[in-house]
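Progress against Task 2.4 (sequence-to-structure conversion) is shown through the following example record, which the project officer requested during the mid-term review.
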Amino acid sequence: MRRLLVILLLMIPLQGFSQWIRFPVEYWTVTPKADTLTFYLVGDVLAHGRVVQSASKYGYTDFFKHVEGNIRKADVSVCNMEFPLAGKPYAGYPAFSGPESFAEYLSDVGFDVLLTANNHMLDKGFEGLSRTIGQLEERDILYTGTAASARADTLLNPLILSVKGVRVALVNFTYGTNFGSAVHWPKVHRMSREALAPVMARAREKADIVLVFPHWGVEYETRHSAQQESFARWLVSQGAHAIIGSHPHVVQDMQWIDGVPVYYSLGNSLSNQNDPIARLEGAVTLRYVLRFGETPEMLPPRLDLLWCTKPGMIEDSYAAVPVSLPASFWRDPADYETLQATLPLCPLAP
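Structure tokens generated for the chain above:
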């Protein structure tokens, strides 16, 4: 804390004439305290048929009930919406079409940005994607990874946020889509160095923090592939500050590349998958210290492991719950035992 002595010169009348009188006044300047910018990041949200059916019966409240506090507490929370809003009839795997109410719930529960570049986004064709974009924009839900036109693309990819005076760029892309080509509007961003180089350049130019969300890797492999690592190294060279992946439907290993954390896959955030390893999921919290006039400083990331329970196991509907939730919460003790047996298979388990 520094003390500055400021002299105010005041003109006051004295006996019919003006005279300068000097009054000493002390001002104290306080250096702003450091603030923290936090991000809460989870994996794939899948609109499987039974998930949607359960929501129609019980509502969506249970889905993220046990981690809603973390979602809302963070300055920015992000999830991968791995289904288009293509309208009725709603459909699950293999060609998804989820209800608009699902996207509304994700926004209402506290997710600030929905990732839309994934292999299922063209399951109902370009018309389905166009409708998805329209429905999100009609509800003022932020998204990235797709765009309706070239003009919109420059605003959405990267998506630039201003949070606590810090500019944050979000870059999202997918290795491919189950249907459709790469050269068409509306567009899904693809995993191509040529296509992503200008996106990363805009991110570097416009933002203080660059977060990259690739949809990549080999399904159900708990270790990352050589292709993933090669592309991650390129992304770091292009200015990525953190890389958070999705698609394999399981939690994969984590690696540091030149000081940049790379979480190759967080697995599913919510789904109807039966394989226990696919019901184990990750949530990453990134924290940056903000000091006046300085570059944001990343603190060590935190990984929380979650478990996707099915209806009747803890709640009436599906629910993502921390693996630390005591056994007493489980209605079905066998599911808790399955969780405990699965944890050692996770490469990021403590």
